[in-house]
Specification:
270 residues, Helicase, Ruva Protein, domain 3, binds zinc ion
């Protein structure tokens, strides 16, 4: 599933192509792709509007228009792609925006979990999302406040988008390994020194992953049929049976909060 670095990569790839374009029309082939709107109502909201900006909040792509925002969540397999014309292979195309100069922005989604909607303000979205890990707001002091206030297990806590926006299964496993924290550790039991290491791990790993255009294991791709390269730098995620890069103990896979979770049992003691 695309996480913060992958969504950021999509946004950066689309910025130079979309900003300043006018939306002419919208077509939806799989109606559940649209949340809260019929295709006609959604099209009415966005037609003839100019794309002012495109940015990311958590795992959401936000397209700024004059009267509001198009919100896109890629979920498992969504891809948002700009093209001069629709692809010849339309099997997985669920919706598209017709743009000026005979161009289009189309949404391809094999698993059909991705969603598109429109909001006139971002108030609702902001109320659902925790801080951005790469913003100035996210300090080690803030992370300490978040963790000391709860006895929830650290991995499901970090996956909770209302606590911290943007982390998913891959980067959670990577940051917890880097900070040598077992994913089932109750948050308030994590010592202050380790919280500082965890904070640094979150910021540096996400920053590095953006630099390498995200992780492509399956299905993640962006403009120009490109894929991310960060999977070459993963340390524990997907490395079951391989030696831990730090201590050579075999990496094992557990289930934590119903998510496949990779740890080094020596580095990450419970
Ligand atoms: Zn280890």
């Amino acid at each position: 599933m695309p996480e913060l670095p992958e969504v950021e990569t999509v946004v950066r790839s689309l910025q130079p192509l979309l900003i300043g374009r006018q939306i002419q029309d919208f077509t939806c082939l799989w109606t559940r792709t649209l949340s809260d709107f019929t295709t006609a109502d959604f099209a009415d909201q966005i037609k003839k509007q100019t794309i002012r900006a495109i940015h990311r909040r958590g795992k959401y792509i936000l397209i700024d228009l004059d009267t509001g925002y198009i919100l896109v969540h890629l979920r498992m397999t969504g891809k948002l792609l700009f093209a001069r014309e629709l692809p010849q292979q339309m099997k997985h195309v669920r919706a598209w925006f017709s743009l000026d100069e005979q161009s289009c922005l189309y949404f391809e989604d094999i698993r059909k979990f991705g969603r598109i909607t429109f909001r006139s303000t971002l108030t609702d979205l902001e109320s659902k999302l925790g801080p951005e890990p790469l913003s100035d707001e996210f300090t080690s002091i803030l992370l300490k406040q978040i963790l000391t206030g709860t006895s929830r297990q650290i991995k499901p806590l970090l996956l909770d988008q209302s606590v911290l926006a943007g982390l998913g299964n891959i980067y959670c496993d990577e940051v917890l390994w880097k900070a040598a924290i077992h994913p089932r550790t109750p948050a308030r039991r994590i010592p202050s020194r380790k919280i500082e290491i965890l904070h640094t791990a979150i910021v540096t790993i996400l920053t590095e992953a953006i630099k390498h255009q995200g992780t492509t294991i399956r299905n993640f791709g962006f403009q120009g049929e490109r894929s991310g390269n960060y999977h070459n730098r993963l340390q524990v995620f997907g490395k079951t049976g391989q030696p831990c890069p730090c201590c050579k103990t075999t990496v094992v896979k557990l289930s934590v909060a119903q998510r496949g979770t990779h740890i080094c049992p020596s580095c990450q003691k419970f």
